[in-house]
Write a structure and sequence with these properties.
This protein has about 55 residues and is mainly alpha-helical. The protein has one domain. The protein contains 3 helices and no strands. The protein has helices at about 10-20, 25-35, 40-54. The termini are far apart.
Length: about 55
């Protein structure tokens, strides 16, 4: 996603970091952010939980 000036949104960086560090899909990362907000500890914990379930 991009903002009004065509720059990547702040969420995009967090999504990329979560995808790279936890090995989840971009869609999963965006869903976690929607549900949990921007708290990194919560996001990485739940992302790792998802990976364990796969």
């Amino acid at each position: 996603m991009v903002d009004e000036q065509g720059r990547p949104s702040a969420t995009d960086g967090l999504v990329r970091r979560l995808v790279n560090e936890a090995g989840i899909t971009e869609e999963q990362a965006r869903e976690l952010i929607t549900f949990l907000g921007y708290d990194w500890a919560s996001l990485i914990r739940e992302a790792r939980f998802l990976v364990g379930k796969l």
